[in-house]
Write a structure and sequence with these properties.
By secondary structure, the chain is mainly β. The chain has four helices and nine strands; from the N terminus they run E-E-E-E-H-E-E-E-E-H-E-H-H. The longest helix is centred in the C-terminal third of the chain and has 7 residues.
């Protein structure tokens, strides 16, 4: 469920959940992690549209290191969809604190510390100066805290509904759920 953010505050590190009224097919029922937000514009990554492919299946480079071949690929947004963008996500002090670093050189992603995730995105979401603020005032988006559940290997189809719903108890229960439900 969304919350109010003071005017002028940066949305970097937060998630935009498309409102039920946002019918634009690029963003209908999406969760967008805000990687960069400032006076000049905003860059976001759609977190709940996996392409069900790994980097090794879509990368054109035969020199792709083996360690990177298993990175999941997502449809990151409608901007520059032919460009692969790499993001490293780091957990903060709890599951509702995520930091994101856009990484230019995928070689930097070969060895990751525990509690970090890497995702590849085809394209990204972008807003020019003042555009996102206008969409927020129109009620197109709910501002939400992120959650590490967005980074699970298989993103649940109900993830958007969980973010926009009034019942947020799942946030407290999520750490108690099995990590590999295929073994149950």
């Amino acid at each position: 469920m969304g919350f109010e953010i003071p005017e002028g505050e940066s949305l970097t590190g937060l998630v935009l959940a498309a409102s039920r009224d946002l019918l634009d097919p690029n963003f209908n029922q999406t969760l967008v992690y805000i990687a960069e937000h400032g006076p000049d514009g905003t860059l976001g990554l759609v977190m709940n549209r996996p392409l069900d492919k790994k980097l090794g299946e879509v990368a054109l480079s035969p020199d792709l290191p083996k360690a990177l071949r298993q990175i999941p690929v997502f449809q990151g947004g409608p901007v520059k969809t032919t460009v692969l963008l790499f993001a490293r996500f780091q957990r903060g002090k709890n599951d509702e604190q995520l930091r994101c670093q856009i990484v230019a050189d995928p070689q930097e992603l070969i060895e990751l510390p525990k509690r970090e995730w890497v995702r590849a995105f085809t394209g990204h979401a972008g807003w020019s100066e003042g555009q996102l603020e206008r969409e927020l005032s129109e009620g197109s988006w709910l501002v939400c805290r992120p959650h590490t559940a967005m980074l699970e290997e298989t993103v649940p189809h109900a993830m958007w509904e969980a973010f926009v719903g009034k019942d947020q108890r799942w946030r407290k229960l999520q750490p108690l759920l099995p990590k590999n439900t295929g073994l149950n």
